[in-house]
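Entry 14. Structure prediction run on the chain below.
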Amino acid sequence: MAPAPRPGPSNFTLSEQWLLMAATVFVCGFLGYVVYDAVMATATEMLQRLLVISPLILIISVHWLSSGRQFSIPIPGSEPGAIHRAGGSPWGVAFVLLLLVFLISHQPSLLGLVF
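Output returned:
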């Protein structure tokens, strides 16, 4: 049986090895950037859609929580007749209005998006 050939010294010079290593790092870095850019574009698009429908989700969740027919979390003042007994300022309405103003003022522009 013949002995296995032993690996000899590399046929590349030191400058060729350095150039090959630099090209490999450059190609890997470029591919990493392309993948990162695609992931960030997808995440931005999904977040934009979530911000657009978030007022609707908020209104539906408040209606669902205040209906009292199905699953109900015991929140002080959440019974159906509590709004008529309330004696303070409407903090919930003020919070919703501030949230809507915040969402409208921070709405992303459509000029910078690439479809």
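The longest helix spans residues 14-67.
Filed with the rest of this week's runs.
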